[in-house]
Amino acid sequence: MGNNQSHSRLTQESSIDRRTVMKASAALGTLALSGATLGATGVQALPDGPEADEDTVALQMFHREWTEIESRIPDVADSGFDAIWVQQPAEMKLDWDDLTYDGTMGFYDEVGPYGHRDPHPPIGYQPIDLRNFDSSLGTEGELESLIETAHEHDIEVIVDTVLNHMANPDGPDGRIDWPQFEADKHFHNNGTLGDDCQVDGEAANYECDLLGLPSLDVEHPEVQSAHEAYIEKIAGLGADGLRYDAAAHVWPWYMEENINPLADDLGLWRVAEVWDEGDVDGLLEWADTGMTVFDFPFYSAISDAFENGSMENLSQNAAPGVVHRDPSVAVTFVQNHDAVGPGVQPTDDAQTVPEGRAVELAEAFILAYAGMPMLYRSGPEEYHELEDDELSTLVAVSNEFAQGEVIDRDVGIDHYVFERDGNLLAGINKGGQTESVTVESGWSDTVLVDATGNGDDLEVGATGEVTVEIPAEGYVMYVDDADSIPAERGISFESTEYAIDGGESVDIDVTASAGKEALAADVTLAVDGTDAATESVDIDAGSSVSVSFDVETADLADGEYDLEVTIPDDSDTATLVVGGEADDGELTLRTTVDVGYGQSVYFSGSADELTDWGGGIEGTWSAGNVWEVTIDDPGEFEWKTRRGPSDATGDVWERGDNHNHTDLEVDHQGWTDDA
Asked: What's residue 323's pLDDT?
């Protein structure tokens, strides 16, 4: 429900620069299954600000040194992932020899939740000095090199951060200290949570030690300064996002007033670990401090459903989940380094034994569902997830088709069929027999093809009703044949008009389609008849790519300019408005929805004129429950409505995808609290 534009890492070359946003995924570029070729899509990235982008699929890469992770970045890109999450960089208490793993007992003599699949506890969560990034994972320079290599492959990097605590002073080689902090000055010293905690109520969660790890006093200005320098250093290495470890044990006001505003200023996306499998309202309150959250309630429902339970308990009406209330802040997952996935059993042979079919089916589910999926496979010696062509195909489907409102179509004990509002019809079957179900769909008079190749083509008649067969312990992912294979070669702008203040830059986005034959050609952008930038594309038959030209206006006077983009045999035109003329115009946003007496519709969006995703501007009602608001034209923006009491602000979001500056009068998508 916020700005979904990706971060840019651009080198300014001239007054009109360009950047290519083509996804280099082998799965997308070459995979032809069941008559459908999944075309290359635009590079997806972590969204600016605290949102979970459905177009992003992230991979957790733990228990490896920086150099090892860097060596596998090309495989990460080929598998279609858009971002990776790595462990905390800081001087740390434990080394590899101190961990319980592979039958060897470590410093704590404990086996982790994965048995001997993963080392326990993971390195990085007992920091000694937040200023020193040389650690058992590698040097600061090696981490910076990893991030640079990831960026070269259009992969963004989420770095773990520990704000709640420092290392327990009892170390493998005797007592340790913390060069940054003093025990009597910078810590709470209120005992251990759940053991001898000396404070009561809410404060216990935030001011008692977690698992014996000394709790930092975040009210202390020197602790705040240390955290600020720490996060700034992570950003300075080029990181794109943060994961907050044990965020549930840091005072919410500190996240809202200090940490998240700093992350905003540094352009860092963020997700918080708030481990609560039952309190969706509480997780949403944490998200309101300015971040996304891991959807632990939904994880719990997924684990139950795919292990021994019924898929009926996973449906929207039954399963708890942040994703069902506000998918824009929900990061979904099947398992992570200390939360075991469905059906996972300890094993001494993790190198050759993947987690199992229950995890694979659950991954297929979250890749097709709402929210931003984060995947993880255990076993540090092998990268099962990077050798899995089936998973790569699912990641490709997720990136290209898993958008729009989730519509439950049919759910039973072993199967779940749902639609992503005219983009994707997904069926998951955990049972041992093929499931055949007849459902309504959002299509008519077309052919649906299974992008995974598991199912036969489906002919959809005028009524939209279709019978879906889902293989035993399998899945199908149906998309419109017309959507998956562009029939004709073509080039088109994504907007008819681009407006920008003089001296600033604007992204001019276009889509090139190869049609029935492969296309290797130049895409050329001209401004008022003068070629401004050219980008070469190589597109497989039936595929499309997105290209974005970053236009600088420093040398352009205020006024209107003709834009033309061309490839061999096709061209398209648009208008660029620079400066004063872009500021003089107004536009009206309009939608029709009944909100009841005493309630109003508020228009919120990514521009200051729409409160920058705040409570919104109250609309004006007219007969027929038409709501509208007129604002100064801010150029390119996204927007959505909120519902709230009259003469106040909106507090309930509209469901579904964001609208944008080309959608001024829209069909309302319902409210997030609708039954």
From this structure: 96
446-462 tens-digit pLDDT: 899 999 988 999 999 99
**What are the pLDDT digits (tens) for 590-623?**
999 988 888 999 999 999 899 989 899 999 988 7
Quick one: how far is CA 416 from the chain centroid?
23
Measure Cα distances from 410 to 17, 312, 361 in Å. 49, 9, 17
Question: 599-620 burial by CB neighbour count: b if 16+ within 10 A, else e?
Answer: ebbbbbbbbebbbebeebbbbe
User: b/e per residue, 358-380, with b = 16+ CB within 10 A?
Assistant: bbbbbbbbbbbbbbbbbbbbbbb
By the 10 Å C-beta count (0-12 exposed, 13-18 middle, 19+ buried), 548 is classed as buried
CB-based contacts of 663: which residues, under 8 Å, 6+ apart?
none
* Closest to 43 measured CA to CA, from 87, 86, 10: 10
CB–CB of 185/238 below 8 Å?
no
Number of CB atoms found within 10 A of residue 338's CB: 16
Residue labelled with tokens 């899945």: 475
d(CA 558, CA 547): 26
DSSP state of 259: I
DSSP state of 619: P
Q: What confidence category does residue 32 fall into, taking pLDDT thresholds of 50, 70 and 90?
A: very low
Do 656 and 642 meet the contact criterion of CB atoms below 8 Å apart? no
Residue 368 to residue 505: CA distance in whole angstroms: 35
Q: Which pLDDT tens digit goes with each residue over 116-163?
A: 788 888 988 999 999 999 999 999 999 999 999 999 998 999 999 999
Q: How far apart are CA 457 and CA 540, in angstroms?
A: 22
Answer yes or no: are the C-beta atoms of 118 and 102 closer than 8 Å. no
Q: Kindly report whether the peptide bond that precedes residue 121 is cis, defined as omega within 30 degrees of 0.
A: yes
Report DSSP state, residue 257: I
Whether the pTM exceeds 0.85: the reply is: no
Surface-to-core class of residue 13, CB atoms within 10 Å of its CB (0-12 exposed, 13-18 middle, 19+ buried): exposed
- Measuring CA to CA, how many Å separate 20 from each of 7, 461, 535, 547, 612? 13, 39, 7, 5, 28
Give all strands (DSSP E) within 423-484, no chain letters: 425-429, 435-439, 446-450, 458-460, 466-470, 474-480
Structure tokens at 59: 């991979």
447 neighbors 458 (Cβ within 8 angstroms): yes
The Cα–Cα gap between 142 and 119 comes to 22
Ordered alpha helix ranges (H), 402-441:
none
Instruction: Please tell me the distance from the alpha carbon of residue 242 to that of residue 386, in angstroms, as a whole number.
Output: 23
Specify the DSSP element, H or E, that contains 92: strand 91-92
Q: Which residues does 104 contact at the CB level (< 8 Å), separation at least 6?
A: none
Map residue 170 onto helix, strand or coil.
Answer: strand
End-to-end CA distance of the chain: 19
| 348: its two tokens | 């001494």
Taking CA atoms, 441 is separated from 146, 157, 400, 417, 446, in Å, by: 44, 37, 19, 10, 11
H runs (alpha helix) in 379-441: 389-401
Contact criterion met (CB below 8 Å) for 386 and 72: yes
Distance from C-alpha of 59 to C-alpha of 306, rounded to nearest angstrom: 21
Burial bucket for residue 8 (CB in 10 Å: 0-12, 13-18, 19+): middle
